[in-house]
UniProtKB/TrEMBL annotation:
Domain GST N-terminal per the UniProt entry, residue ranges: 4-85
Protein's recorded name: Glutathione S-transferase
Residues of the GST C-terminal domain: 92-221
Classification via PANTHER family: GLUTATHIONE S-TRANSFERASE GSTA, GLUTATHIONE S-TRANSFERASE-RELATED
PROSITE patterns (alphabetical): GST_CTER (PS50405), GST_NTER (PS50404)
Record's keyword terms, sorted: Transferase
Length: 225
């Protein structure tokens, strides 16, 4: 690996695209941005499809290496570019396993099974494609609240971050889901609210929010909410 990485991040404007922006700001990495947005047709161009046949954002190019899936990109950045001073990943094997457990839990239960289901079936989001289904949206919101109890239990011991004293990329994944839930009017639990405010005060979070803004306005149906 070269001393100065050649990083390009494709994608802005959603709860998934902000994750790698944020990880790179936490790690102090310089990178180029290709500000393509969701549902704009920009993920379907020949150039982009060659890089990412799945035609989804975000996508990271690190030199000649490409990786998609926001959680995988964040894990890759965490493992490749953490330093003793700036680390997004725990050190011991067991802590690493617990970190992975949180990452999979957040992506599977909070993002895919709850929030993305809401997105697909809300009238103001992708309901025009997948069908407007208020009952499904309500159930998915309730499922989110149930699953969030596991986070609340973990935070109830007074820890600062999901893994304790160390901020890791699991916190990046969780915060983006909490932001998304708040935007959808899902009540987040008592311990999650102060946690969210604590994390949102991080400089790297605010830099990522600024970096994740689309160049042209994204229509409500395409945006994260
Ligand atoms: N599981 C993927 C989901 C990526 C995804 O669905 N991205 C959407 C935007 S949030 C997308 O690119 N949709 C295709 C498009 O907008 O053209 C991840 O976390 O990266």
């Amino acid at each position: 690996m070269s001393a100065t990485p050649d990083l390009t991040l494709w994608g802005v404007g959603t709860s998934r695209t902000i994750r790698p922006h944020w990880a790179m700001h936490e790690l102090g990495l310089s990178y180029k941005v290709k500000p393509i947005g969701p549902r704009t047709g920009e993920t379907k161009t020949a150039e982009y499809t060659r890089l990412n046949p799945r035609q989804k954002i975000p996508l990271l190019q690190d030199g000649d290496f490409c990786i998609g899936e926001s959680a995988a990109i964040v894990a890759y950045l965490s493992r490749t570019y953490s330093t003793p001073d700036r680390s997004l990943i725990p050190e011991t094997q067991r802590e690493l396993a617990a970190w992975l457990e949180w990452c999979f839990f957040i992506v599977a239960e909070l993002d895919s099974t709850s929030l993305y289901v809401m997105r697909r079936h809300r009238a103001d989001a992708l309901g025009h494609i997948y069908g407007v289904a208020p009952e499904v949206v309500a159930q998915a919101g309730e499922y989110f609240r149930q699953q969030l109890r596991h986070v609340e239990v973990a935070l109830a011991d007074g820890r600062t971050f999901l893994m304790g004293d160390q901020f890791t990329s699991a916190d990046i994944l969780l915060t983006t889901c909490l932001d998304w839930a708040v935007a959808y009017g899902v009540c987040i639990c008592d311990n999650a609210q102060p946690y969210l405010e604590r994390i949102q005060s991080r400089a790297a979070y605010q830099q990522a929010v600024a970096a994740n803004v689309p160049v042209a306005p994204i229509t409500p149906a395409a945006a994260k909410v």
